[in-house]
Amino acid sequence: SIVMTQTPKFLLVSAGDRVTITCKASQSVSNDVAWYQQKPGQSPKLLIYFASNRYTGVPDRFTGSGYGTDFTFTISTVQAEDLAVYFCQQDYTSPRTFGGGTKLEIK
Amino acid sequence: QVQLQQSGAELMKPGASVKISCKATGYTFSNYWIEWVKQRPGHGLEWIGEILPGDIITNYNEKFKGKATFTADTSSNTAYMQLSSLTSEDSAVYYCARRVIKGGFAYWGQGTLVTVSA
Question: Taking chain A, what is the end-to-end CA distance rounded to the nearest angstrom?
Answer without folding.
Answer: 37
